[in-house]
Write a structure and sequence with these properties.
This is Pyrroline-5-carboxylate reductase. The structure is a single chain. By secondary structure, the protein is an alpha/beta fold. The chain has two domains: about 160 residues, Rossmann fold (3-Layer(aba) Sandwich); about 90 residues, ProC C-terminal domain-like fold (Orthogonal Bundle), CATH 1.10.3730.10. The chain has 13 helices and eight strands. It has an eight-stranded mixed sheet with strand order 3-2-1-4-5-6-7-8, with helices on both faces.
Length: about 270
């Protein structure tokens, strides 16, 4: 399988790095970028593992069976409707990670014979701890669904969902690591305030969040059950929890996802 990555920025690098780390056999890989600086960065990262092209999107697509569209959402239409590139998309698989760009839009911009799939990965894919949600038209043949699963599953967890959920998925899963890091940093700040060295506080906070999340995923236990198992009557945990509730942390985080979802829904629309 030969792959062309169009626009190899943060997420393109995360996908490639996670794939190399997992040992996944990707075949020939071409990354298409728009600047020499980006090309040099990729060459330093991957050496001969990735062929890097600058300003030659059509050439990269021509030699690939699968095309990963990793450009900014507002550039997707311009990139795909380039006449020379568009011609080379016939009969190939296009997997787009562009937030807010719908399957219908993608199908309008590519030849009828192009198989279109949406993917929403997140940056922890870089260390194979990612979450990727896939979506495709109802009539997509099973071999292409399997291809997408095989591509993203080595990078962490992967599942299909209806496209109607993708804006919320973008905010919760795609942006989620950034939101989680704010919580992590705040917990570490509290540790520092109470005398714990910064590096140790970060380690303790990160492992606490990682461990709690792993318990949810591994055991299937509800977060509330795990919280209650730590909370003893009159103890320090309930004191801290009440302080969090005083600060309306639940509604603030929930509204964060609501607001980010609204913005995600606008990203693919023409300006």
């Amino acid at each position: 399988m030969s792959i062309c990555v169009l626009g190899c920025g943060t997420m393109g690098v995360a996908i490639l790095s996670g794939s190399f780390e997992s040992g996944t056999e990707l075949g020939e890989i071409t990354a298409c970028v728009s600047s020499e600086d980006s090309a040099q960065r990729l060459q330093q990262l991957y050496g001969e593992q990735v062929k890097v092209l600058v300003g030659e999107n059509a050439k990269g697509v021509a030699s690939a069976q699968v095309v990963l569209l990793c450009t900014k959402p507002q550039l997707a239409k311009v990139v795909l409707e380039d006449p020379e590139l568009n011609r080379h998309l016939s009969g190939k698989v296009l997997i787009s990670i562009c937030a807010g760009v719908t399957l219908a839009q993608l199908q309008d911009w590519v030849p009828e014979t192009t198989v279109v799939i949406r993917a929403m990965p997140n940056t922890p894919c870089k260390i194979r701890e990612g979450m990727t949600v896939l979506g495709c038209p109802p009539n997509t043949p099973s071999q292409y669904r399997e291809l997408a699963l095989n591509l993203f599953s080595p990078l962490g967890r992967c599942r299909f969902m209806d496209e109607k959920h993708f804006d919320a998925v973008t905010s919760l899963s795609g942006s989620g690591p950034a939101f989680a890091c704010v919580v992590l940093e705040a917990l570490a700040d509290g540790g520092v305030m109470m005398g714990i060295p910064r590096d140790v506080a970060l380690e303790l906070a990160a492992q606490a969040i990682h461990g709690a999340a792993s318990m949810v995923l591994t055991t299937g236990a509800h977060p509330a059950a795990i919280k209650d198992s730590v909370t003893t009557p009159g103890g320090c945990t309930i004191a801290g929890l009440l302080t969090m509730e005083d600060g309306k942390i639940r509604s603030t985080l929930a509204r964060t996802i609501q607001e980010a979802t609204q913005v995600a829904s606008e990203l693919g629309k023409p300006k």
